[in-house]
Amino acid sequence: MNYIEYINDITDRVQNCELTANEGWAMTVLIKKFSRLGWRKKIRYADEIWGADCGHGRKWIIPIRQSLIDKGLIAWERPQMNGEPVISLYPALSQNGITEGTTEGTTEGTTERTAGRITEGTHNKTIKTNKTNKDYKTLSLQKSAESNLTERERFIEILFFEKGLSAAAAAKEADRFIANYERTGWLDRNGREVRNRLAALKLWEPKKDAITHRDLRIVAQWRQVYNCAPDIVMIRGFYGFEIEKCRNDNTGEWEDAFWIITSPVLKKYLQSESVRPLVAPVLAELADGKKIMIKTKTI
Questions:
Q1: pLDDT tens, position by position, 119-136
Q2: What's the pTM value of the predicted model, to 2 decimals?
Q3: CB–CB of 116/200 below 8 Å?
Q4: What are the structural domains of the chain?
Q5: How far apart are CA 71 and CA 65, in angstroms?
Q6: d(Cα 106, Cα 108) in Å, to the nearest integer?
Q7: Among the residues of 197-296, which ranges form H helices?
Q8: pLDDT confidence of 91, banded at 50, 70, 90?
């Protein structure tokens, strides 16, 4: 198995596996780690560091790591004394595969990462297309088959939850991504059609100065709520959680409450008859017995 076949095989396995939101986020962080290290056969990656890179901790990553093992996506070796655990992406490379630590094809201009797959190519290849930008802009705004989100809104979802960008930065980056591929007619540098745009976006590098979330742990928690009733307003109108005192209506005493900080539009959405029953169980779990309150602000 050569380098290209190996990366494509990993991508196909992840795309065809049913993952929870947390598992998907942990797998994204892990794949980025392998990419930064030149796609080694194995890497040393402590649970504490992996969990922290995901915005959580060791206790959070352990059950997720075990689930990824059970689903056949990774292999994990227990650490030796005073050492770190060793992780490899499954299946492991064969003896005739790529060498450990190789960076062949990882620099810009020697490979093209599109549609969740990697193909060899050069950055100066001429691309020809007879389709107009207008045609592709219409395609990029089609409704998703799985939800009521447009394709652009799905891009924002990935950039917000998986790339860690703020809502405003995610919207700008989605437009930059779309504009980049509309210039080529949604073709890669080899002139091939980008068939899986969501996968291509997951390999997209946002601008270095893009505004990111202050607390990825809160974003991961909000994604659990979002998955119950996906809508773009759940991204645009969410500003965070906080624990503050509120007066108990029955006793008149002050007690801790779990406050959700939202826009007025999102508050109305969460309290609607169709959405409230869907998100209530997850919010109750996050509140951990505290009273759930919503406060609004306009940004």
A1: 433 333 333 334 443 443
A2: 0.52
A3: yes
A4: 3-89 (1.10.10.10), 111-202 (no CATH), 237-296 (3.30.300)
A5: 10
A6: 7
A7: 197-202, 216-226, 233-236, 264-270, 276-287
A8: low
